[in-house]
């Protein structure tokens, strides 16, 4: 499978400029997300070697100083002189932006990373970077400081003649990144995903920062079939076998794996050349079209749908479906700089054809499983119709907008959403204090009675029938699910304000589950926050201090002195605060602490698994999660 990959396959498009001045343009941000993106860029290059059939092992090591070492057993970056640049090809890759084997040079047929773009950007944003290439019995090396070459490419030793590959070591520049400490779990989630998507590729992650190094190894012979099984962990599959479709059309390689479970949420994960496309695109459109048509055709042909009944909708069929759609394409066209959505029309046709043909065969050969899929879809259709009727109850004519708002809502007077915020408060007592404490111009209060419905375990009709959820839907103004329109959002800060106890944490989780499943764009756009009320009030000689955790309380006591003149109150709930205290500690924009709920697209599959584990029906996965993460828990006394 090896294609020609020499020095002249490295194509030069433009010089490396402005990366250090505007790093966000190249890696998204200089926060934790951008820091980890550096690793993905280098690993992507190694994965491209695997896609070309020339690599089956990648090792990623987090060193004690938070530098990163990535080693693969691919062909090695070419060390010969690039005729256009007059310097070694490896130097071109690491010092010139948009230089790599993916820009018409014939180095790769399909590629996921930004070979050359990624390497040079990582180099530019690193304090130092060293590359070593194992080639024809020699070890070549070159070092860079903040993107600049320290010495010409040189041979530093010998290796076995048959040994090939590349090793890249780099240390992110602390003057550019907000933090340079790598998160093991973040890297683990992404590397596991890469291994699922590249059948038979083994990826090893090692963390050397602790006394006892941590190690995770990922190797999946079943590829995305095993990915679906992993994603369905914590759910009950409706049939044992993962449905798998594979084929090639119009130079597009298609792989699809899917399996229904007993939950109600849809989870379709799309990838192009191993790049996650969270906004879908043409490959997802092709999958949905094929799935909907094929299931309807089968249901009609086998009399599972009556002539008088309407066709099943795509949403009906995808209820409780976990699917991975992975395509490999020579020249992927993405909509937007961030590669969130695929635009190639040939991908739509290819996925549609492959899935239609192979799913038809599967249904004909597995009538029991086919019937299960159709019956679940028909039940979903009936529930969706009930939900539609319930949804109509939540809609109000624009002219009566103010009258239609929930009776329990204390709305604000300002009508500019950018100035407005709504506090979701548990209980009438805390709601009363919040209503008295608020700034009436810009702060609205919506008290909830008890715990809302756990939407992880409920169909749409049950969700729309829940009074507390209906109140939130109406107050926010956006609608939910298919009706969601973020332009109609009435408040640009949605603040969850619950007691600092176990019940309060549970209510927060129920609210976040609802928002994540049915209004995810509110979280993605940064409109959702968690209020942080204080845990303690300390009073001494008519002076008052508030502490938000035990460490803050200890620091205050060390400052003011520890004796009997201290009066310490441990707040058990928001209702214990009078309106003045609640305003001063939790609601005053000048003094309060708000935690914004953040969403990382790259961890979407792991996020789904976490919600299912914590909020789903199965107890065993939840127990395992708690046992594995107990050491990270804080404030156990709450």
Output the CATH homologous superfamily of the largest domain. Answer: Histidine kinase-like ATPase, C-terminal domain
CATH top level assignment of the largest domain: Alpha Beta
Tally the beta strands: 28
How many helix segments?
20
According to CATH, the fold-level topology of the largest domain is Heat Shock Protein 90
Terminal Cα separation, in Å? Answer: 60 Å
Q: How would you describe the shape?
A: globular
What ranges have pLDDT less than 50 throughout 5 or more consecutive residues?
396-403
Strand content: 15-25%
Question: What composes the largest sheet?
Answer: 9 strands, mixed
Radius of gyration: 28 Å
Mean pLDDT over the residues: 87
| Number of discrete domains | 3
Briefly note the structural class of the backbone: alpha+beta
What proportion of the residues is helical, as a percent range?
25-40%
Which CATH architecture of the largest domain is right?
2-Layer Sandwich
What does this structure look like?
It is a single chain. The protein has 638 residues and is α+β, with helices and mostly antiparallel strands. Helix 7 crosses helix 10. The protein has three domains: 213 residues, Histidine kinase-like ATPase, C-terminal domain (Heat Shock Protein 90, 2-Layer Sandwich); 161 residues, Ribosomal Protein S5, domain 2 (2-Layer Sandwich); 141 residues, Rossmann fold, CATH 3.40.50. It has 20 helices and 28 strands. It starts with 10 loop residues before the first strand and ends in a 9-residue tail after the last helix. It is globular and about 75 Å long. Helix content is 36%, strand content 22%.
């Amino acid at each position: 499978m090896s294609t020609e990959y020499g020095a002249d396959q490295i194509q030069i498009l433009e010089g490396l400029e402005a990366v250090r001045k505007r790093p966000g343009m190249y890696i998204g941000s200089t926060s934790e997300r951008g820091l980890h993106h550096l690793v993905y860029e280098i690993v992507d290059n190694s994965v491209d070697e695997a896609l070309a059939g020339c690599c089956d092992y990648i090792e990623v090591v987090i060193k004690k100083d938070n530098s990163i070492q990535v080693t693969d057993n691919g062909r090695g970056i070419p060390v010969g002189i690039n005729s256009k640049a007059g310097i070694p090809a490896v130097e071109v890759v690491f010092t010139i932006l948009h230089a790599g084997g993916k820009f018409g040079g014939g180095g790769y047929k399909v590629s996921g990373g930004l070979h050359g773009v990624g390497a040079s950007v990582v180099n530019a944003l690193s304090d130092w970077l060293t590359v070593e290439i194992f080639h024809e019995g020699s070890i070549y090396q070159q070092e860079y400081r903040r993107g600049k070459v320290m010495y010409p490419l040189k041979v530093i030793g010998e290796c076995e003649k048959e040994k090939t590959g590349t090793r890249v070591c780099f240390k992110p520049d602390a003057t550019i990144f907000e933090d340079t400490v790598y998160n093991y779990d973040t890297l683990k989630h992404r590397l596991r995903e890469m291994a699922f998507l590249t059948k038979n590729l083994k990826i090893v992650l090692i963390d050397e920062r602790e006394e006892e190094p941590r190690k995770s190894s990922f190797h999946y012979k079943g590829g995305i079939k095993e990915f679906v099984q992993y994603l369905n962990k914590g759910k009950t599959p409706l049939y044992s076998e993962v449905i798998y479709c594979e084929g090639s059309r119009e130079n597009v390689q298609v792989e699809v794996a899917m399996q229904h479970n007993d939950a109600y949420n849809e989870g379709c994960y799309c990838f192009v050349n191993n790049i996650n496309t969270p906004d879908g695109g043409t490959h997802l459109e092709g999958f949905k079209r094929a799935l909907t048509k094929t299931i309807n055709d089968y249901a009609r042909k086998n009399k599972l749908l009556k002539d008088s009944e309407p066709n099943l909708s795509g949403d009906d069929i995808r209820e409780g479906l976990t699917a991975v759609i992975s395509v490999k394409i020579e020249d992927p066209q993405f909509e937007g700089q961030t590669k969130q959505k695929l635009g190639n029309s040939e991908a739509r046709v290819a996925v549609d054809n492959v899935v239609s043909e192979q799913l038809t065969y599967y249904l004909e050969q597995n009538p029991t499983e086919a019937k299960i899929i159709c019956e679940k879809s028909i039940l979903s259709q009936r529930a969706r119709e009930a939900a539609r009727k319930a949804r109509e109850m939540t809609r109000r004519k624009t002219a009566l907008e103010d009258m239609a708002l929930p009776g329990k809502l204390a709305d604000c007077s300002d009508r500019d959403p950018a100035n407005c915020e709504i506090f979701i408060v548990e209980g009438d007592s805390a709601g009363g204090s919040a209503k008295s404490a608020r700034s009436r111009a810009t702060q609205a209060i919506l008290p909830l009675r008890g715990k809302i419905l756990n939407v992880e375990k409920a169909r749409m009709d049950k969700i729309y029938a829940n009074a507390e959820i209906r109140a939130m839907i109406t107050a926010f103004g956006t609608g939910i699910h298919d009706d969601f329109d973020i332009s109609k959002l009435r408040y640009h800060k949605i603040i969850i304000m619950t007691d600092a106890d176990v019940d309060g944490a549970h209510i927060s989780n129920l609210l976040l589950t609802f928002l994540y499943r049915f209004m995810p764009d509110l979280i993605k756009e940064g409109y959702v926050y968690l209020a942080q009320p204080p845990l303690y009030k300390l009073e001494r000689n008519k002076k008052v201090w508030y502490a938000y955790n035990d460490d803050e309380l200890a620091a205050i006591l060390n400052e003011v002195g520890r004796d009997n003149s201290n009066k310490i109150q441990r707040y058990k709930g928001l209702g214990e605060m009078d309106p003045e205290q609640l305003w001063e500690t939790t609601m005053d924009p000048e003094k309060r602490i708000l935690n914004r709920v953040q969403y990382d697209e790259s961890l979407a599959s792991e996020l789904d698994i976490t919600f299912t584990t914590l909020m789903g029906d199965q107890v065993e996965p939840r127990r395992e999660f708690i046992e594995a993460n107990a050491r990270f828990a804080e404030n156990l006394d709450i």
